[in-house]
Amino acid sequence: MPSSTAMDSYASLIAAPMTVAQRKHLLKQLQSPATISTLRRPEILMDFFTDSLDMGDLGLAVPALQGLFHLITSRNLDYPSFYPRLYALLDKDLLHSKYRSRVLRHLDVFLAPQNHLPAATIASFIKRLSRLCLFAPPSAIVAIVPFIYNLLKTYPTTTFMIHRPPYPPYTKFKHNLGNDPFNPTESNPQLTNAIDSSLWELETLRSHYHPTVASIARIISEQFTKQQYNLEDFLDHGYASLLESDLTKKDKKPPVVEYKIPRTIFSEEPSDDDAGSHERMDRLLDIWDFEC
Amino acid sequence: MAPSQLKQLKASLREHGVLGPQKSKKQKKATSKDGQKRLQRNAALEGIRERFNPFEVKAPARKEKFEFASGKHSKPAVGRPGVTRGLGEERRRETLLKEIQNRNKVGGLLDRRFGESDPTMTPEEKAAERFARQAERKLKKTSMFNLEDDSEDEITLTHGGQSLGLGERTKDDFNEDDIGSLNSGDEDFEAQDDRPRKRLRIEDGEGLVEEGDSEIPERKKTKNEVMKEVIAKSKMYKAERQAAKADDDDLRAELDKGMSEFYAALRGHKPAGNQLPSPPTTESEPHMDPARAAMLAGKSREDAEKEYEANLRQLRLEARSQPSVRTKTDEEKAAEEAARLEELERKRIRRMKGEAESSEDEDEDDAGADADADADAELGPDEDFGEDDAETFGLTVPPSRPPPPPQRKELDVEDEDEFVLDDDLIASDSEADGASEQDAEDSSSEDESEDDGDDDFINGLVLPEGTQLATAPKTTEKRSMNNNLAYTFPCPQSHDGFLDVLKDTKLEDLPTIVQRIRALYHKGLAQGHQEKLDAFAGVLTQHVAYLADSETDVPFSVLEGLLRHLHSMAKSSPEAVGAAFKSQLETIADERPLQLSPGDLVILTGVSTIFPTSDHFHTVVTPAMLTLGRYLGQSSIQSLRDLGIGAYCSSLALQYQRLSQRYVPEVVTYITNALAILSPTSLPDKDQDGRSWNFPIRLPAKPLRVQMTAAEVPEKLIFKQLVVEDTGARDSNVHALALLGGFIRLSVQTAYLWRQKSAFPELVSPLVHAVGHIAGQSAKLPKSIVKLAADTLETLQSLQEAAIDSRLPLLLHNHRPLAIKTSIPAFIDNYNPGRHYDPDQQRAQISKLKAEYKKERKGAMRELRKDANFMAREQLREKKEKDDAYDKKFKRLVAEIQGEEGREKKEYEKEKRKRQGRF
């Protein structure tokens, strides 16, 4: 049992004004369930966590969320806007930041089936993640797609997002089916209509330029025979590791070489007999001029 | 007369103590507890049974089933338990009984002499048999008659070098002596023999004495003589064979000498020499070939001769000419070309889809991968076996499922056919034949028609050195270069070496120099040239990057020439060029992944032309594409030059994906970022619908926004100005405007490239937002740009709307439902319900062993029981014998004593009576 002075010191600490760095440090100390459980009245941390969450910094939000989640699950804290807060965390910076892996690990816990979440909420998370994926680096796509697979597998209702016959019992309207019913501006994951949408973003990623990423994206369209993908295996990749594995890959056969040697590379083809096809093929010369 | 069977049985039972006087309960209990007694009793009963049923016959308990249907009309099997039991008894008597008797006894002799233990043989018979055996053993020695083996194995007793006994030797000597002494006297005899004189004299004497006997005319030959004869004969045969062989060789040599003429005659190759002199002989000869006579008839000699010559020549030509390839018509050629291109395109598409090529090993690969996938599918979450999920997709360093490596073999053959025909040329030089010349012409003309762009490569490079000198000036002329360039260069194996070579040359001569080096070190000219050229390919790749980096004013025609040289080198050795490009990419990745230099851009451009960029996985293209993506995704934009490089990279990325239309997210984000950076006012965070960005917008530390300017903005982006030179403040605004225009055009290209994607409306929306923002800045931008932006916006929006209209909800899972796993029931031929068909090999083996063990155990127990019975019987018998003997002895002694006593008593009585009578 920690002394009341420790308790008081924490209470005074979190009440005092602090800089962002101090707050981060304090959060790092307080986020773990072990620390929280040593406190006599952990409820006092609630405001501290919610304040940190509202500051809009990923570095603060992630540990704050973790602490809040622990309070909710163990201390019966009533925080109805937890999932909207979590949903708001998935913004444009997430997949490009260094907190990506950590947030994904937390998401894995927060969206676990034992939390009994409604399918609409899960669908919103899936849709938001796949929308972010459309502009994400390969390393993020590689992690998100198996995560979404796991979600789809755990909540079978959401699989309508990848397989929806184009007529009314399944769609809301008869026409204009290409319009995405998903409302990206809605902040409540329960109300985004994502459950009526389709994951075209992931379908597009099946033709990602990198073969590994493309083949991972393809698991969405194959039979869901695997129960779960181990998320840890897909985190912590990057351009460098992908590039290294590509460069060190042993190729059994010599590389294929383009059959036709182009007559020119940096200048317009002198003969302009069929300029149409040429123009179609060469996007470089449309924009660039290599002459001095 | 023997008593009846029943009485006999009763008697024997009583005798063995089986039947006897009534026993009390106590006694019965005692006997039943005493195992030894019970055993004895059983043994006794067994013995009695055996004795009373010597001809016991036992029918099988059950008749054979379906005796008639199965067609086996055999006698019913009859067991003779008595006989088998008797046999067993016999065997036991021989083994077990002996052992029992020999128990606790040590030593003894084992007599192995023949017939020793057989009492039926007389001593004479035994001796005869033993002698016969010995003789037989001697005969078995095969080496005695082996001529090759000189060693005399026969053991003879000798004394003083002379054999003893009834030696054939003495007899031999005697006979030989006899003949010798008769014919040639003592001299040669002495030469033959070196036995002691004395002995000889004695023998001579004997010989004289026995002379009469030895004059039998046909003496049986001794073994020695026979052997000698045999040897002599075999030697003679051998000599004969050798002589015959020598004769044959002579004959063959003679024939060989005439062979060349014979061949000539066969081919009709020797007309003038031999046929011309022949006419005079034909004149003189009365017999003439009728055909020839007909030909000669009515013609002068000269004419006939000429005609003959002509015919002969014609014949020769005919024999040598072969069916030639028919000259194809233009339509056929066009069709062939079309088919070839179609095939190439088909292969390209297969590679693009990442499908396995038709070759077998790749099928296997694929199957293996499938199996992997299956295994993966089977693994539940619980039974993960520690396998990395990501590894299945080749995400970690040792990729377990490599995408099918690109196939090349056939393609290589094809381009070798039409691109490098130097091998043909060089080979045909030695023949110097008209026909092959024509071939060469044919193929070269074909070549011209096929790849019109490659002429200048072939010119200098396919011909051997001599011809190259003649053609080289032509090429230099064509390229308007100076003629005093050296013709021979060393083949540089390192970049420094190459720089040495190029020290005093002009930049414009570089392609010519490379061409000459390639011609000089063509692989057809000497061994090892290929390796040198492979190294040179690496050097050349380095040099391209070096040139573009270091020399700011290098003309692009030179770089282009070098890249095309690399391309044509890649056709002959793709590994080397591929490795060279890969090492360049590695350097980029290690040293400057986010600061690409112009040289790197040229290299990446080269990759886009030399290698097929549409492949699913390509060992060079994939890393190159990843390098581009990395730069676009992660580089931070701080200057206009960065933006220029980024624009070029985006452009290259689109160029890479022009055929396969794969999606590159980094391009969209980069273009949007660039537009946001260049836009004269900052881009709002949310678009008109209130949607926020899906990716971060990073603005540079120093704003690069364009300002209104009246200067002329070039239509295209100029590589030199934007990428190579570090733009000063001088005309930065013009450059910025040019870049803005370039990026707007790039966004159109992007939209056109990916307009088929299902998520096109979403992916184009940031571009629409950014371009729309720029189009709205008419006050701060030149009209041309605003107009361009407005047009672009219109295009993008119309494309977006069209995509939304044509799009349908996803239908990705039209798979057939997974069937429950079934297995075909195994059908076993000749199924036997008695047999065990255990599918588990190990278990089957174990149960088989168990059964065997059980059977053996039962058998062994039965045997042991029988042995125990036998031993009990034997012991009983022995005991009885001993008892009998003791009884007999006792009786005898008693009788003796009684007799003695009686005698003594009589004596006593007599004495008594005597005494009584006296008294």
UniProtKB/TrEMBL annotation, chain A:
Signal peptide: none annotated. One of its GO terms (cellular component) is Noc4p-Nop14p complex. Residues 62-217 form the CCAAT-binding factor domain. Coiled coil: none annotated. One of its GO terms (biological process) is ribosome biogenesis. Belongs to the CBF/MAK21 family. This is CCAAT-binding factor domain-containing protein. It comes from Capronia epimyces CBS 606.96. The lineage of its organism: Eukaryota, Fungi, Dikarya, Ascomycota, Pezizomycotina.
UniProtKB/TrEMBL annotation, chain B:
Residues 1-46, 67-94, 151-223, 266-415, 427-460 are annotated as: Disordered. InterPro entries: Nop14 (IPR007276). It comes from Capronia epimyces CBS 606.96. It is found in: Nucleus, Nucleolus. The keyword Hydrolase does not apply. Belongs to the NOP14 family. GO terms for biological process: maturation of SSU-rRNA. Residues 192-204, 299-319, 327-356 have a biased composition (Basic and acidic residues). Residues 174-191, 205-215, 357-391, 427-457 have a biased composition (Acidic residues). One of its GO terms (cellular component) is small-subunit processome. This is Nop14-like protein. Keywords: Nucleus, Ribosome biogenesis, rRNA processing. Involved in nucleolar processing of pre-18S ribosomal RNA. Has a role in the nuclear export of 40S pre-ribosomal subunit to the cytoplasm.
